[in-house]
Amino acid sequence: MKPLQSMKKINFFHLLFLLSIALAAVFCIVSVVQSAHLQQVEHQLSSMRGETSRADHLQDQLQDLTAKYDDLSSRMAIRQSFSETHASDGTKIAYLTFDDGPSKNTSQLLQALKQSNVKATFFVIGLNCQQYPDAVKNEAAGGHVVGIHSWTHKYEYIYANMDNFKQDFMQLHDYLTQQLGSEPTICRFPGGTNNTVSKKYTKEPIMQEAVNWVEGMDIRPIDWDADAGDAETPIPTKDQIVQRVLREIGHKTNPVILMHDFGNRTSTIEAVPLIVQQLQAQGYTFGTLSAATPATLFKPVVTAAS
Ligand SMILES: [Zn+2]
């Protein structure tokens, strides 16, 4: 019995040992498999987290683009409504406009316009109005239209940010309202609304926002489509100004002619009667600008992204 008992004992411990090894092996395999599985799950979770943050980012971009689209759509609708309401009926009307005055030559310019029996539009500078306090009243009394240009005309100030732009604009708006007894309804942005000038003075050009803000006050920004070139140096002669104006007008039905009321030159004033004669001979009459002038006068606004 003894050897048999001993053999049984050996076999029992042997079996127990083998069982332990087997259990340990199974445990190891399960651990390895679980760990691999956990790693896989973690990897999946982190890639899902990455995708969620990408989706959030795309959502933000989508919202941003949607806002820009809405803004552009409403601006296009405004301009479309202008062109539908105020489309040219084909009548040839030219608009003489004089920027940057008043000056010491304003009364002489008013005299030349009176002699030619035409009315014009003046986009004035506030600081010059203070220097020639009777000028805007004389312009309005002569049947001409006075619009906002800028209080300071300092590009680096007015186009630096919206606060500066609004301050400068409203200073002249309030001054003209007080001087003329009614609010101005038109304006011309210094350098024009196409942004080629203003974008030099800010990282994020404010032109689009400024145009929206002005239009929101029912004031109409108006550019030009025939540049007389009279602000250039050397100062052009009256004949050069006339030729340039006729060339720029070409076959336009409602040209808006950009000229200047500067104190350091008189060739613009001398050119006025000649321009009037030439254009009248071509069948044009002369008008003043208003919020109802044909919308083709708008130039596209270039945004920061362009
Ligand atoms: Zn100007």
From TrEMBL:
Protein's GO biological process: carbohydrate metabolic process
GO MF term list: hydrolase activity, acting on carbon-nitrogen (but not peptide) bonds
PROSITE patterns, A to Z: NODB (PS51677)
Residue stretches in coiled coil: 48-75
Domain of life assignment: Bacteria
Signal peptide (UniProt feature, chain positions): none
InterPro entries assigned to the protein according to its UniProt record, in alphabetical order: Glyco_hydro/deAcase_b/a-brl, NODB_dom, Polysacc_deacetylase_ArnD
Residue stretches making up the NodB homology domain: 92-287
Pfam name, any one: Polysacc_deac_1
Keywords, comma-separated and alphabetical: Coiled coil
Protein name, as recorded: Polysaccharide deacetylase
Organism: Ethanoligenens harbinense (strain DSM 18485 / JCM 12961 / CGMCC 1.5033 / YUAN-3)
Lineage: Bacteria, Bacillati, Bacillota, Clostridia, Eubacteriales
